[in-house]
Specification:
With 280 residues, this protein is α/β, with parallel strands linked by helices. Helices cover 34% and strands 19% of the residues. It is globular. Bound molecules: S-adenosylmethionine (SAM). The site of S-adenosylmethionine has 25 residues, from helix 1, helix 3 and strand 2.
Length: 280
């Protein structure tokens, strides 16, 4: 099966998936303001998963180069953890969008509780139809959200439209590392199927950014610091927790065959890319 013959994610269904995951995580006490793979700077880093998640936001903040005068778009904002951390560290304003109504409700509640509602606003919306004027943001961040968007080209082209000249885009995305195996590891198939995702190709990004009118500033394989390390960390915890947080119970349609992070333990052909681009 090639990526083009696999089922593409549908934004409405992705929104419903994240609605269920959000409600479930609140119900079973596993709620986390970050919905992403963490970042461990070094192989001997002792950071917990929670600390590594915050570290990923801080890596984004370093590359975004924003300050208290900036307005940042958070594309696929989750429940707002990364956006709120960026606001409190830089003073920037953040507007976040997600296809999940439950995530948006939660993100706005967390912003109000943190006293940041004047600088952080979260709204329901599809990244493939950005409801914003041209040149309206100084920077765009997308932490692990493009994998759910069926048309990366359309997203990046629209990002180029809403970014002001000189503004940066920083994103992470999942990809299949080369050389591709003839038969894809079943863990990758399960990940894509159950988390409604597609994988990118490192070469794709060069062409995607070029066609969108964005200038590539950097592309880094951060697999060792992210996916591989997360699978290792999760391997250390009990099996009941060895599932994406909200898959444990509640109203998620969990089956024995469902994806678990341990399905990707040691699978080094599944990785994570950090991409930095700029609107010329
Ligand atoms: C893995 S979560 C990452 C959330 C957040 N960036 C974080 O790091 O905590 C993926 C996010 O992408 C959002 N998303 C997926 N497809 C989307 C689309 N077409 N438009 C807007 N958001 C989308 C989901 O609703 C979810 O919030």
């Amino acid at each position: 099966m090639t990526e083009t013959t696999r089922t593409l994610p549908v934004p409405g269904a992705v929104g419903e998936l994240y609605d269920r995951l959000t409600l479930s995580a609140m119900h079973d006490g596993t709620f986390n303001p970050n919905v992403h793979i963490g970042y461990w700077d070094t192989p001997d880093s002792k950071a917990t998963i929670e600390e590594a998640m915050d570290r990923l936001t801080d890596v984004f903040t370093e590359w975004l180069r924003v300050d208290g005068t900036s307005h940042v778009l958070d594309l696929g904002c989750g429940v707002g953890g990364p956006g709120l951390r960026l606001v409190s560290h830089t003073g920037a304003r953040v507007t976040g969008i997600s296809v999940s109504e439950e995530q948006i409700k939660t993100a706005n509640r967390l912003a109000a509780e943190a006293g940041l509602a004047d600088r952080a606003v979260f709204q329901h919306g599809d990244a493939m139809r950005l409801p914003f004027a041209d040149d309206s943001f100084d920077a765009v961040m997308a932490l692990e959200s493009l994998c759910h968007m069926p048309d990366r080209q359309q997203v990046l082209t629209d990002v180029a439209r809403v970014l002001a000249p000189g503004g940066r885009l920083v994103l992470t995305d999942v990809f299949e590392r080369h050389p591709r195996k003839e038969v894809r590891h079943p863990g990758i198939d399960k990940f894509c199927r159950d988390l409604m995702s597609t994988t990118a190709d490192v070469d794709d990004y060069v062409a995607l950014l070029h066609r969108s009118g964005l200038r590539l500033r950097g592309i880094l394989d951060i697999t060792e610091q992210t996916t591989l390390r997360l699978a290792e960390e999760l391997g250390k915890v009990a099996t009941a927790q060895d599932r994406p947080a909200a898959m444990n119970e509640g109203n998620f349609d969990f089956t024995e065959d469902a994806f678990r992070p341990s399905d990707l333990a040691g699978v080094d052909d599944f990785g994570c890319l950090l991409v930095i681009a700029e609107r010329p």
